Structure formats: structure tokens, C-alpha cells
């Protein structure tokens, strides 16, 4: 029979089967409740966690790079492997590499690399995040303006061809015709609104057509005012729209994070928007993303020459800690925003994001200071030392 029994733990984000439980079993790559038979037959390994926290593996849906590499600059399997190793060490067991606006050939290479990576590492990467080029140049951030454009019929055909390698796309609805949004939605491509100058009513129309999420709220979009609730206002008032925020202490004020959470509850999720400097083995004073130099400023974060923010240097567990210690979230609320809600947004919550019988055994085990002590990925347990 066999399995690995994790005992004496604080379990988070559990189903009713694990209510009041302090133990679980990992068997055949899946999570199952503890059966007394497993304790009696002597074939299972038992690990006493001495009160450590156990939660679903974190899911980061927006990573430009980390560990000294940028996926957009080198969109190949080697880059993805470096990103995977670093993210696993930090408790992010499912991640979505991001490609910002650029040439078609770069997009094709990225999609093909992600497809090969997905085949090698099932469950680690649900696909690529295409953040552009179908965005608004007025809200482009550090995207190279020469590649920002409107979507064409040819683009729709191309995207549908690669749909299995696309986790989701960030678009500006003013750059994508409603019929294209509907066609992509019907092809099961998840769409998110971002880098957009859409009004409140434009955003509502895009949600009706098939957009289901907002990318890095408060950044790269028309903001809420007294006369225009904007994209975020439309999302807050729409019961089925997810909102992602960058919880690094620089992109969004903690009070605004608390406010959005109070308004939308479990429709809020967090992303790192990490860049190459996150976990870089070498000290980096600057780096380049799609031709734009990004500077590492200890006071202001990652900024371009104009002083605009250009991603972050955090991992998602840093953001979980920030939500708890600075934004007033409970541990379960913070973990939900970093695992179950992004799983729901991506449509993978039937197997990921929760401690439930039959779910894939992707688990993180951490202490009260949010330091990773063990990782269980696809049923295989490793200590933090073994991950280095």
C-alpha cells in the first residue's frame, strides 16, 4: 500500500475531509486523508512536522524572469529550467512565464519552448502568459512601443493554433474587436484586461464578451475616479471577474490591497511580476527587458529611465508574508490569494490549489516565518536543503 504520512501539522486551505485534521497522506502522487490502516501495515513513511504549516503549492501567474534570467530575452527550455528550480525553492510549484510585446518569431519560439517544457514537467507550467502585443500604447508601461498593435484575423488564427500552450493573455479590449474576444473565449483561451485605457463601460462590455480577469490592478490601466469607476470599478461590480495585484509593497498601497480584498473576497489573487533580479546568483544593478534598461533602485524598486516601475524582485512567498504582516490578511486568506484563486482563474482548481482528497500532491511546508522547510511536488518530498 505505502505512502508518506505527514503528521502533527497545521493544514491550510483544506476540504471538509480534512477539517480539524493535523495529518495527511501522499500516495500515488495524490493527497488522501489519513487511514489508520496505513499506520498499521508498516509500509508507509511517517514524518512528524512538529507544528509546521502545510499548504497547497503556490501558483504565480506572472513571472517575467528570475534567477538571473529573463524569459523574453531567452525564450528557451534552459531559461524555464532555471526559473523552475528557483521558484520551487521558494514554494511556487506552478508558474506561468510571461512574454511581453515583441516580434512574432519571439512569440513562436516562446510558445514552442513552453509546450516542450509542459510535456517534460506536467503540472509545473500550465502555459505561457502573453502580455501583449494587443494592448494600448498609452498604457504600455515598459513594453516596446514599436510592437504594440491591434489584433487581426490572422492573429486570432495563430493564437488558436497555439492555444494549448497559452495559459492566458493580457489584452486591451480597445485593441481587440469584440468578435475576436468571443472567438478566443470560445477556443478556451483565458483573457485578462490590462495595459488598457478602457473606461468603466468598455470594461463591462469586455467582461460580457469573455474577458474574465484583470492583470496587475492599479498598474497599466485607467484608474478609478469620481466620474469614471474605470476597469477596477467594473471588475469589483462584476461577480465573476478575478483581480490580480502585485503585493510587493511598491506597486499597490497596503490599504488599497485591503480595500479590494474586502470588496471582492476570494476573487483577488496576487502575482509577483518578478524580473531576472529575483534570486539572481549575481548582484545586478540593471538588466534589459525587450530593449529597455531596468535599474535596481534600493529605495524605489525596479524602474526604467523615466522612473516607472518595471516589475519586482520578490517571489510569491514574500508576497504572502506581506499580505499577512502588512495588509492584515489571515494566513489562509493570503494563501488562498496565492494558490486557490489563481488556480480558479486558470481553470486548474479541480486538481490544484487545495488540500483535498484526490488532488495532486503539490504542497509546501513552512515555518511561522514563512521559510520553506519541505516541498512536495507531484507526490515527491524534498527538504529545503535538497532543493538547493
TrEMBL record:
Pfam annotation, one family: Amidohydro_1
Listed cofactors: a divalent metal cation
Enzyme class: hydrolase
Coiled coil ranges: none
Keyword Metal-binding carried by entry: yes
Cofactor stoichiometry and binding remark: Binds 1 divalent metal cation per subunit.
Signal peptide location: none
Domain Amidohydrolase-related: 54-379
Protein name (record): N-acetylglucosamine-6-phosphate deacetylase
Species the sequence originates in: Anaerobiospirillum thomasii
